[in-house]
Design brief:
The protein is of the alpha/beta class and 230 residues long. It has 2 domains: 6-128, Rossmann fold; 134-228, Orthogonal Bundle (Arc Repressor Mutant, subunit A). It is built from 8 helices and 12 strands. The protein has helices spanning 14-26, 37-46, 63-73, 88-96, 109-128, 159-170, 178-185, 191-208, and strands at 6-10, 30-34, 51-55, 79-83, 101-104, 134-136, 139-142, 147-150, 153-156, 175-177, 214-219, 223-228. The strands form 3 sheets. The protein has a 5-stranded parallel sheet with strand order 2-1-3-4-5, sandwiched between helices. A 4-stranded antiparallel sheet has the order 6-7-8-9, covered by helices on one side. The chain is globular. The termini are far apart.
Length: 230
């Protein structure tokens, strides 16, 4: 029997929080609703969640700083931001600090649930299937455990980082168009997701920099090539 997924919702607007929580409960999720970042952090420490929904602009502790605390504690749990802030810089900051997705208010409950299920299905599939390991020179990538191992140590990846690296490993030494990458990983190829892709490419390059046999080459106006010398 499949276990009920437990969601942490941190949203300081009580009306929006009630609507989101009520809809998620109707969909069969278990939900804990916190009204500010401090309360959200306490709940996070006291429970085990499958996914976190964080408002960005909150009193006491904002969503970005709450996410930083969560990421320092756990790299695996999916974090989705819910915010009225639509500036590109805010979206990029959300991904830089380890967020997995970003919804701008107002959003539909159907879209929220669809975005949530992308990550929950991946977590379920990864726990059910044996992990294939990918050797990248002296590094080893384990997509199920979100780990990139090297002689210097182990780097824990976020779900989105691991998804992108897995896509590249499965399509190594091929020029992959930006729109194909975006639709495969993000589900859409709009402008904001495109900028987010650039952020994640930069992060992967940083992680892989110690390994000379691997590089991610940008083909301007076309896409990227994950080059692996074997």
């Amino acid at each position: 029997m499949e276990s009920v997924k437990k969601i942490l919702l941190v949203e300081d607007d009580p009306n929006l929080g009630f609507v989101v929580m009520d809809n998620l409960l109707q969909q069969g999720y278990q939900v804990i609703h916190a009204l500010d970042g401090d309360e959200g952090w306490v709940n996070y420490q006291q429970n085990t969640f499958d996914l976190c929904l964080l408002d960005v602009m909150m009193p006491k502790l904002d969503g970005f700083n709450l996410a930083r605390r969560m990421r320092a504690h756990n790299h695996d749990i999916p974090i989705l931001f819910l915010t009225a802030k639509s500036m590109l810089e805010d979206r990029l900051e959300a991904f830089e600090l380890g967020g997995d997705d970003y919804l701008t208010k107002p959003f539909s409950i159907d879209e929220l649930i669809m975005r949530m299920e992308v990550f929950l299905r991946r977590s379920k599939a990864q726990s059910a299937a044996p992990s294939q390991l990918y050797r990248l020179g002296a590094m080893m990538f384990d997509p199920a455990d979100l780990k990139l191992s090297s002689p210097e140590g182990i780097k824990k990846l976020t779900q989105r980082e691991a998804d992108l690296l897995l896509f590249f490993c499965a399509n190594k030494n091929q020029v992959m168009k930006r729109e194909v990458i975006l639709k495969t990983i993000w589900g859409d190829d709009d402008y904001f997701f495109g900028r987010s892709l650039d952020v994640f490419i930069s992060k992967l390059r940083k992680y892989l920099k110690p390994e000379p046999s691997v590089q991610i080459t940008n083909y301007h106006g076309v896409g990227f090539k994950f080059e692996l010398v074997e």
